[in-house]
């Protein structure tokens, strides 16, 4: 495990960089004619500001810590510091803009997510939503904060009282079996939760669970940069994060359920299991 001195040093180094990255994001957010490019499919988009922010952060980190590694969404730094695997080396896990489609349309659920792993353990996270003027910060063992104020998960313990987020953009997945899986899960979870919501930004949804604005969130088929900082934020805010079927959360295969209480997490898991056993929407309720 990293020493507290090292965690504090790296946090103090990264915090002003995250602030500056937020300023870059705001420049693009307010720009009318953003350049938008397609990555893998029509729904998978990237802007010049995704690349600008990632390049800025990686360049600043390497100037100070040339041995550090990176796992990032855009991988704009084409050098041997970018890795696809988590090792014991200090590794920054960066999403320069989560919610790029929101960013393009000036929808305020947009975040910069910066997590740090040391010896394969997430030890700090900084998440900046500059549009909403919210900076979420977390250190391992040090609690979770928004704009310097402590945050805590909600105490809702059942689905009928819960606001649950589910990322419906997963319906874009080309694999029909996977797409149908999500349709069934949305039906089972949405028909039992007080509200089912989708924000188009995984990182912001994780932050809202940590702050008690949401009671639970479920996501699959994501990447380490979507969840690294938010995972630690929820844990330090008193919440629970597991694999959807209840096993340990794996940052390199970040399928997850997170909730403010274990009882709510367990009930959500039960609905996911029930959905996966159903042949089609509603067939188990006829």
Automatic annotation (TrEMBL):
| Superkingdom of this protein's organism | Eukaryota
Pathway it works in: Polyol metabolism; myo-inositol biosynthesis; myo-inositol from D-glucose 6-phosphate: step 2/2
Q: Catalyses which reaction?
A: a myo-inositol phosphate + H2O = myo-inositol + phosphate
Q: Which InterPro entries match?
A: IMPase, Inositol_monoP_metal-BS, Inositol_monoPase_Li-sen, Inositol_monophosphatase-like, Inositol_monophosphatase_CS
Q: Which residues bind Mg(2+)?
A: 73, 95, 97-98, 226
> Where is the secretion signal located?
none
Gene3D superfamilies recorded: 3.40.190.80, Fructose-1,6-Bisphosphatase, subunit A, domain 1
Task: Provide the alphabetized UniProt keywords.
Answer: Hydrolase, Magnesium, Metal-binding
Cofactor names from the entry are: Mg(2+)
Task: Give EC number(s), comma-separated.
Answer: 3.1.3.25
Pfam families the UniProt entry points to: Inositol_P
Reply yes or no: does the keyword DNA-binding apply. Answer: no
Q: Which PROSITE patterns match?
A: IMP_1, IMP_2
Give any single GO term for biological process.
phosphatidylinositol phosphate biosynthetic process
Which residues does UniProt call coiled coil? none
Q: Which SUPFAM superfamilies match?
A: Carbohydrate phosphatase
The molecular function terms in GO held by this entry are: inositol monophosphate 1-phosphatase activity; metal ion binding
Q: What class of enzyme is it?
A: hydrolase
Which PANTHER family does its entry note? INOSITOL MONOPHOSPHATASE, INOSITOL-1-MONOPHOSPHATASE
Q: Report the family membership.
A: Belongs to the inositol monophosphatase superfamily.
Q: Know the name of this protein?
A: Inositol-1-monophosphatase
Source species taxonomy: Eukaryota, Metazoa, Ecdysozoa, Arthropoda, Hexapoda
